[in-house]
Amino acid sequence: MTNVHNARMSLTIEVDRHHTLPIYLQICERFKAAIAAGHLKPGDRVPALRGLATQLNTARGTVEMAYDILVDEGYLQMRGAAGTFVSSSLPGSVTKGAPRRVRERAAPLRAVVVDNDAKPLRPGLPALDAFPRKVWARLVGHRARGVDIASLTYPDPAGFRPLRERISTYVGLSRGVECVPEQVFVTNGYRATLELILRSLSKPGDSAWFEEPGYLLARNFLIEAGLTLVPVPIDEEGLDTEQGELVDANAHFAFVTPSHQSPLGVTLSLARRMKLLEWADRAGSWIVEDDYDSEFRYAGRPLPALKSLDRDDRVIYCGTFSKVMFPGLRLSYLVAPERAIARFDQITRSMNAGPPHLLQAAVADFIAQGHFARHLKRMRALYAERRTLLADAIVKAFGERVSMELPAGGMHLVMRFTPTPNGPVDDLAVAARAREAGLAVIGLSAWYLGARTKRSLRGIVLGFANVADSAEATRLARMLRRAYDG
Ligand SMILES: Cc1ncc(COP(=O)(O)O)c(C=O)c1O
Known about the structure:
The chain folds into 3 domains: about 1-100, Orthogonal Bundle (Arc Repressor Mutant, subunit A); about 130-375, Type I PLP-dependent aspartate aminotransferase-like (Major domain) (Aspartate Aminotransferase, domain 2); about 380-485, Alpha-Beta Complex (Aspartate Aminotransferase, domain 1), CATH 3.90.1150.10. The protein has 15 helices and 16 strands. It has helices at about 25-35, 50-55, 60-70, 100-105, 135-145, 160-175, 190-200, 215-225, 240-250, 270-285, 340-350, 355-370, 370-400, 425-435, 470-485, and strands spanning about 1-5, 10-15, 75-80, 85, 185, 205-210, 230-235, 240, 255, 285-290, 315-320, 330-335, 400-405, 410-415, 440-445, 460-465. Strand 7 and strand 8 form a beta hairpin.
């Protein structure tokens, strides 16, 4: 570690020769950090090349490379013989205090931490150990090697045409969603889909039905985007449409997970589906169907998608490759109602949206060559097994303290805490302790938008797809039990 302190500008430059980051990049990082922290201010002179090189005991060329980058990026300005200075016109976002302000404004709506990494029991994560990585690497490599000039230009903002064709065939066959490729828009994950929907169809002041409890990440995104969410309770038939109509008959959207409610796992009954569609037609509202994990079904045949019953063209069907392939892809899609195709088209063009060509092409190949169908079939069998492993281990570790139904589909379990003589169990506290122990579980209360009421269920939502064997299931269930005991 070499350390240089420049008293006049209270600038500390440290470089670490054992770090994987090259020294010139470390120098860049240090300067940027010093500017962000206010130790270096616009107009300050920075050390001369030779001087800094000597102090850091490195070659002059190394410091020169760093300064060149900082100049190119606009952080520094070279003024000939006068020396090198911090740019006098740096935007507020890179100078003192800005990161703190941004963080303050973006304070979470409700303090829910959802890990992006693969900690045990993380809900929603597919079996990463079982993805055919070699096949995938081959397909991506093939596309990368065969790259031609045409594929270097801007991709179609609505999505790579062959992938749109594959998706339209797939949702037709597997989910009863009959559509043409022009209705399919490829996006960068479900929340990007939501953004496209809002930009295309929403206006300020719109309200929307949202499942209570419901998918917390979508909920937070929609609130941040300015929508007023109206919580509509979930019962054993799914979304209680009558309640929705009572509270807000004119909502502009209804966001629903009909196949496998997130998080409770119920399926929206046929009667409710019809009521929801009738309401949307009457009110001129849009139904956003999030069909995130319907491919995984372990008992009986899944009901076709709600979109398959959509005679009045009011349903926007949303799918994702996060569960059926892996979430690092950031690929998802929507099927637009026919009447809204032109609008979605216009907005995707104005955003110049659309994921990178290379990944879309590799996914189209993955589907076309049969790997997709094969993978799904294997995962259905594997998840059915892992689901039972974890459920058995939880029941063994908790006994009467929890009730749990084996979910008919999906990749997560919901364990519900039996109330104790002292009242309901504080599931958020249990989840927090479990998280401290390294598990990525989420308390069920966190999925409620409204205040916790007597009706709110208390429990834990946990993903089972990555539980490798019964020994691991037992170990994880015991960790959870310790978190429960406090
Ligand atoms: C209810 C629900 N919808 C959609 C998604 C998919 O999100 P994305 O496509 O951003 O990975 C998830 C992922 O966990 C989910 O749980």
